[in-house]
Structures are given as C-alpha cells and as structure tokens.
Specification:
alpha/beta; Oxidized Rhodanese, domain 1; two-stranded antiparallel sheet; Rhodanese-like domain-containing protein
C-alpha cells in the first residue's frame, strides 16, 4: 500500500491483492464509482455503486469498523473521488490501483453478463 499525506489526511493507494484480501476478510467497503451501465455489465461481487457523477463525500458512512476503498475502470476516477472524500473530511481514504481492469488482469472473480441471455453470471478467470 502506498500512502500520501494530503493536509492532515491520509490518502492510500491499495493493490488489487490488498483489496481482495481485505474485502474477503470483510474489513473494507468497496465502492465502485463507474457508471451504472459499466457496473451492470460487469462488477466485483459485493461492491457498492456510487457513480462519480453523483458522488457526495459528506454522505459517506462512518469508517468505524470498515475502511472505504474506491475503484473504477482504471484508477483515474477512483483517485478523483478519494481526493474529493478527503476534501469532504473523510479520512483515511483509499482507492484501488489500476481499477477493475487490474482486478481482471489479476484473474480475480467478478460478476459478468452472459452475452447469450443478458443474465448476470459469476466469472472466475483462469
């Protein structure tokens, strides 16, 4: 994990493996900031959706027991949202380096769309 001081706040960048371990251990809330269309097509199972276009940092839940980690497609939007969360007073805050693309590249499981039926399906890359 990389960390950076932003004023009095701590901004963290987590690797895919760090996010996967913490998510599996129920230690974080993973928030997807992509569009609803991107999320519906494929997403990390259990990740919440809070699109960048509708993001309100002051509406985030308290991080008493679980840390918040944002992710998007490549890491650009999630970094932007994480910095906006810091500006809203939410700290520490993190985002996933490389986004969903890195998640898939690391062969982590996700929910995809069956192109024949349009139904969601579990995908476990090999």
């Amino acid at each position: 994990m990389k960390s950076e001081k932003v004023g009095d706040a701590t901004f963290e960048t987590w690797t895919v493996d760090e996010v996967a371990r913490a998510f599996d251990a129920n230690e974080i809330v993973l928030i997807d900031v992509r569009t609803p269309q991107e999320y519906m097509f494929e997403h990390i199972e259990g990740a919440l959706l809070m699109p960048l276009a509708f993001f309100k940092g002051d509406k985030l839940p308290d991080q008493g027991k679980k840390r918040i980690v944002f992710h998007c497609g490549s890491g650009v939007r999630s970094e932007r949202v994480a910095r906006a969360a810091i500006a809203a007073g939410v700290t520490p805050i993190a985002h996933m380096e490389g986004g969903f693309g890195a998640w898939k590249e690391a062969k982590k499981p996700f929910i995809g769309t069956n192109m024949a039926t349009g139904a969601p399906q579990s995908v476990t890359p090999e």
